[in-house]
Amino acid sequence: MSTLLQSIKKWRMPSKTELREAMRGLTKREWFLFVGLIIALGITTFSILVAINNHFIVKIPAHGGTVRAGIVGTPRFINPVLAISEADKTLTSVVYSGLIHKDETGTLTPDAAQSYTVSPNGLVYTFTLRDKLTFHDGKALTADDVVYTITKIQDPLIKSPKRPLFEGIEVAAPDAKTVVFTLKQPFAPFLESATVGILPKHVWENVTADTFALTNLNEQAIGSGAYKISKITNNSEGTPTKYALRAFSHFAPGRAYIEHLDFIVYTNERDLVAGFTGNNVDMISNISPEKTEALAQEKYTITHSPLPRIFSLFFNQSQAPLFTDRAVIDAINLAVDKQQIVNEVLLGYGHVAQGPIPEMFKDGSITPQKVDADAAKNILTKAGYTKDTDGILKKGSTRLAFSISTGDAPELRKAAELVKQDLEAIGMSVELKVYEVGILNQTIIRPREYEALLFGQIVNTPADLYSFWHSGERNDPGLNVALYANTKVDSILESAPKETDQAKAKTLYSSLEQLLVKDAPAVFLYEPDAIYIMQKQINNFTPTASTYQGEQFRNAYTWYVRTDSVWKFFAKNKNQIAPIN
Q1: What's phi and psi for 216, nearest 5 deg?
Q2: Who has the most CB within 10 Å: 211, 292, 301, 520?
Q3: Nearest CA-CA partner of 226 in 141, 140, 135, 138
Q4: Terminal-to-terminal C-alpha distance of the chain
Q5: Rounded CA gap, 555 and 540, in Å?
Q6: Over the stretch 403-453, which tens digit does the pLDDT of each residue have?
Q7: Are strands 178-182 and 170-175 parallel, antiparallel or unpaired?
Q8: Claim to verify: residue 322 and residue 195 sit in the same structural domain
Q9: Residues facing 244 on adjacent strands
C-alpha cells in the first residue's frame, strides 16, 4: 500500500513546456492521428450529451398562437338563453361557462362549479361554486347569476328554446357559492341541463323581457368562458364578418393554450370552402360529404364523429291505410339498401341506423337487418299481393302506391330517390314530394298531411325519445310523426328518465328499442357524422360524439398549436406531455 501511495505522490501533470516538447516530437502522421482522436472524442461526448438530454426532454403544450374557424351564418344570439342556430351555439359554447360541461370524452365534469351532490331521492341537486369566479369584465360570478339565468330561461315571455328543460324546477341560492335545484320528480338527464351557460346578472338585469332578444348584448356578449370577445369586424352593411376572441386568463378550468380564436363568418357553404382553400381559415365543419370528398383529395386533415341524429321513413296509417299491413312494412325494411344510402349520400361519413336510439347511446342489442329484395318480394307474395296490369302490386282494391314527403336538402332528396328506386324494384309505386323545409314543417308535418315522411330526429339524450314516440305526442305540436301508440312504450318513456340507476335506465331503453323495432312504425335508415376539416395541426383536437358540430369548441381551451421543450420533471403531469410528431 505504501508503495502505491509513493507512486501516486510521484505522479504529476506534465508542464506546459513538457507538452510543447512532446507535441514537437510528433511525426506528421502521429499529429493527424492525435487531432482525429480529439475530434472523435468531442463528437462522441457531444452525442452522449444530446442523447442524455433527449431522454429527459419532452414537449409540452405552450400558450400562444391563433386558430381561425369558419362558420356559416351570422350569430344572432351569443346568449345561452336564446342560442338556437349552429353559429349561435358555437360562439356561446366558448364565451360562456356552465356549472358543469362535457369534456373531450363526453364525460360531465366541473366547470364553474367545483362539485355537486344529488339527494338520495334524485330530487335535489346542490352545486358548490369555485372560489374567485369572474366574468370577462372582471365582476364576480356568484350563485345569484346562476339563479338569474335560470329564471330568464323559465320566463315564458322570453321564449327560450331551453325552457322545457327547466319547466317546474325550483332554483335557489342559499349563499353566494351554493345553487340548489329542486325537481318535482326524478329526472336523470337533468345534469345535462346544468351545462347551460351563465349570464352576468349585473349586465342583463335592466333588460326587459320584450327587449331581451333585441339588445346588442346578444352580440357584445360577456360571459365567463374560455374566450372573451375582443373585437367584432363588420362589413359596409354593418353585418359582422369576424369575431376575434382572446383567451380569458381567469377561466376557471384553466387558461386556454391557444391565445387567439377567430370566427370568420360566411353566408353559405360554397364561400366557406373557398375561404378555407384560400387559406383564410384554418378549420371548418358542417360541410356536405361531396365537398368533404373534394377536399380530401387535396390532402387536408379530415376527422369525423357521430351525431345523435336518426333519419327514418315514417308511416302515416291514417293517410295511407296500406301501412296497416305489417307485410308491407317488413317488405320495405328488407328492400331498402341502407348501406347504399350511407355510401352514396353520406359518402361513408355515417352509418346505418339500427333503431330509434343513436349509436352513441346504444348497447348493441339490435341485430342489423340485411337488404334482401327477393325476401321482400316473397313476403308480399305470401301476403296475397299480385301484379296489376301496370306491374304494381295490389291485393283486392289496395295498390302498393304511395308518396314520400321530404325536404329539399340535397341529402334528403338523394336518400329519398334511392328509397324510391329500391321500392319500385319490388313492385311498389312511389311518388316523391319535395318541399322547402319551412313549408314541409308548417304545411305537411304539423297537420300530418303525408303518407310517408323521410325526415330526421335529433336525440340529444335518450329522454328526448319521449317527444318522438309517446302516444301523447301524436298531434301537433308533438313530434310523434309516425302517430305511434303502444302503452308499454309509453310506460317506459315515462319511467326511464326518472331512473337514477344508469344500468337500469339503459335496460329500460334497450327494451324500448326492441319494442319499436318489433312494431316497426318507421324504417330506420341512417345516422350522419359530424365532419371537421383542418389545414393546420391543432393538437388535442379529438372530436367525440356531440349534439351539434360546434359543441367541440367547448373544449377549445385544451387545444394547442405551440409546444415547449422541457425536462420531464418540469412537466406538471404526464397528460401535459405533447406527442412528438
Answers
A1: -75, 0
A2: 292
A3: 135
A4: 58
A5: 10
A6: 999 999 999 999 999 999 999 999 999 999 999 989 999 999 999 999 999
A7: antiparallel
A8: no
A9: 231, 262
